[in-house]
Design brief:
Layout: H1 3-10, E1 12-16, H2 20-26, E2 30-32, H3 35-42, H4 48-59, H5 68-84, E3 91-94, H6 103-119, E4 127-132, H7 135-146, E5 151-156, H8 159-167, E6 172-175, H9 177-188, H10 198-212, E7 218-221, H11 227-232, E8 238-241, H12 243-250, H13 262-265, H14 277-285, H15 288-316
Parallel strand pairs: 1-2, 1-8, 2-3, 3-4, 4-5, 5-6, 6-7, 7-8
Helix pairs in contact: 3-15, 4-5, 5-6, 5-15, 6-7, 7-8, 8-10, 9-10
Length: about 325
C-alpha cells in the first residue's frame, strides 16, 4: 500500500479543497471548504455552472435581481451539494468570518445554510457548519448542537479553545497545525523536525486530553505544511489534507505507523481544566501565538470572502 492507503487504516482522511475533480482522485471520506478555497475554485471556468445555478437559486421564480448575500449562501450550499455527490460522508461549510464575534448572527446564518441544504434534500447529518473558535463562535455552537446542527470549530490554535469547544458539545474541531508552525518558525528563526513541530505537539496534547476525559468531540488536524506533520498524527480521528500533500502521500511508500491512540491517552498524567469565559479569555491572552493566528485567520477569511462577493457582483450585473 502507498502511504495514503496506510494512513486511511488509522485515520479518516478528508480532502481540504473545493475542487471536485481533486476530491474524486483521492477518495476521501469527507471534504472541507473555506472562503479561500471557494475563491480559488470560482476563478476556474469549469465552475461557472455552479455560480450560475447559485444566482438562479437566489433569483427565485420572479426572476428579479438577487440579493448578493443570498447568492453567496446559495453558492456555498451549491459547492457543498456537488461535493456530497462525491464523498460518502460530510462536507464542512463555513459561516461568514464577519460573524466571528456575533453569537446571534452566527446561529442565524448556520440555520439558513442548513435550511438551504435541507430544501435540496440534503440531511443536516451530512453537514458540518464551520465557526471560528472565538468565545462567541463556541457559544453559537453550543446552541446549534442542541438543535441537531453539527459544528466544526475552525481557526483553533490552543488547548483553551479545544476544551471550550468540547464543553460546548461541538461535533468536531480543526486545530491548525501548519499555521502554528509558521508562527514559531518566525518567532524562533529556525526549522523544526516533524516530531518537534509545535503544531503537531499541540494536536497531540488536544487529542490526548479529549480521550483521557472522554469527550466525544472529534479532532481533525488541519492546515499542514508537509507530509511529516501528517505522519506524526497518524491515528488522529480525522486529518484534512490539501491536494498537493494527498498526491505526495499517494506517490510515497513510506511506512505509516499509528502515533495516536485512545488507549495510550488514558494513561497520561494530565489534569482536567475547567474553562469558563473568564478562563478562556485569560488563557488566550497568555498565548500570543493563538491570539495572533486567530485574529489573522479571521481577517484573511474575511478578505477572501469579500473577493468572492466582488466576483459574484460582476456575475450578477
Amino acid at each position: 500500500m502507498n502511504s495514503l492507503e496506510q494512513l486511511k487504516q488509522f485515520t479518516t482522511v478528508v480532502a481540504d479543497t473545493g475542487d471536485f475533480q481533486t476530491i474524486q482522485a483521492y477518495e476521501p471520506q469527507d471534504a472541507t471548504t473555506n472562503p479561500s478555497l471557494i475563491l480559488k475554485a470560482i476563478g476556474k471556468p469549469e465552475y461557472d455552472s455552479v455560480i450560475d445555478a447559485a444566482i438562479a437559486d437566489a433569483s427565485g421564480k420572479n426572476g428579479n435581481e438577487p440579493e448578493l448575500e443570498s447568492v453567496i449562501d446559495h453558492l456555498l450550499v451549491r459547492f457543498g451539494m456537488e461535493i456530497l455527490k462525491i464523498v460518502p460522508g460530510r462536507v464542512s461549510t463555513e459561516v461568514d468570518a464577519r460573524l466571528s464575534f456575533n453569537v446571534t448572527g452566527s446561529i442565524e446564518k448556520a440555520k439558513e445554510l442548513i435550511r438551504l441544504y435541507e430544501e435540496n434534500g440534503i440531511s443536516r447529518d451530512r453537514i458540518l457548519i464551520k465557526l471560528a473558535s472565538t468565545w462567541e463562535g463556541i457559544e453559537a455552537a453550543r446552541h446549534l448542537q442542541k438543535e441537531g446542527i453539527h459544528c466544526n470549530m475552525t481557526l483553533l490554535f490552543s488547548l483553551a479553545q479545544a476544551i471550550a469547544a468540547a464543553d460546548a458539545g461541538a461535533q468536531l474541531i480543526s486545530p491548525f497545525v501548519g499555521r502554528i508552525l509558521d508562527w514559531y518558525k518566525a518567532e524562533e528563526g529556525k526549522d523544526f523536525a516533524p516530531e518537534e513541530d509545535p503544531g503537531v505537539i499541540s494536536v497531540q496534547k488536544i487529542y490526548t486530553y479529549y480521550k483521557k476525559f472522554g469527550y466525544d468531540t472529534e479532532v481533525m488536524g488541519a492546515s499542514f505544511r508537509n507530509t511529516g506533520e501528517i505522519v506524526q498524527l497518524a491515528g488522529c480521528d480525522l486529518l484534512t489534507i490539501s491536494p498537493d500533500l494527498l498526491e505526495k502521500l499517494k506517490d510515497s511508500d513510506e511506512p505509516i505507523v499509528q502515533k495516536l491512540s485512545e488507549e495510550s491517552s488514558l494513561n497520561e498524567p494530565i489534569e482536567k481544566i475547567e474553562v469558563d469565559e473568564e478562563t478562556f479569555r485569560w488563557m488566550m491572552n497568555e498565548d500570543p501565538m493563538a491570539t495572533e493566528k486567530l485574529s489573522e485567520g479571521i481577517r484573511k477569511f474575511g478578505i477572501d470572502m469579500n473577493k468572492v462577493r466582488d466576483e459574484i457582483r460582476k456575475r450578477i450585473s
